[in-house]
Amino acid sequence: MLEFDFAHHIPSILVGVVVGILAFAPLLVALVPVLRRKREANMTVGFMGVFASFLVLFLGVIVTYLLARPVLVGFAAGEIIGFFLCWLAVAIALMLKKD
């Protein structure tokens, strides 16, 4: 049976969270001007933001796979956590925003 030693994976999870947050930045750059109504929504810019975010996440997983395979699961979990925390922050900010 496979075991997951949480204490062993804490550093990789934290690094994954940081990479997940950094991966959200290109998407945020594309999203913020539209939310502030400074620019019309543009599908090309949106897709470029999504692609850049995906690329950062993917490269993080590939580098971890090549350099530190035993902590890949923790790193990937951290990436997901960091990315979704950013989405949660944007969603909460939009809900609290007063027009």
Could you give the distance between the termini?
A: 54 Å
Proportion of helical residues: over 70%
Sheet with most strands: none
Shape: elongated
Give the assembly state of these chains. single chain
- Helix tally equals 3
Binned strand content:
under 5%
Radius of gyration: 16 Å
Order of SSEs, N→C?
HHH
How would you sum up this structure in a few lines?
With 99 residues, this protein is an all-alpha fold.
Describe this structure as you would to a colleague.
The chain has 99 residues and is mostly helical. The protein has one domain (15-93). Helix content is 81%, strand content 0%. The chain is built from 3 helices and no strands. The protein has helices spanning 6-35, 43-67, 72-96. Helix 1 (6-35) packs antiparallel against helix 2 (43-67) and helix 1 runs parallel beside helix 3 (72-96). It is elongated.
Key features of this structure:
mainly alpha, elongated, 0% strand, 99 residues
Write the layout of secondary structure elements.
Layout: H1 6-35, H2 43-67, H3 72-96
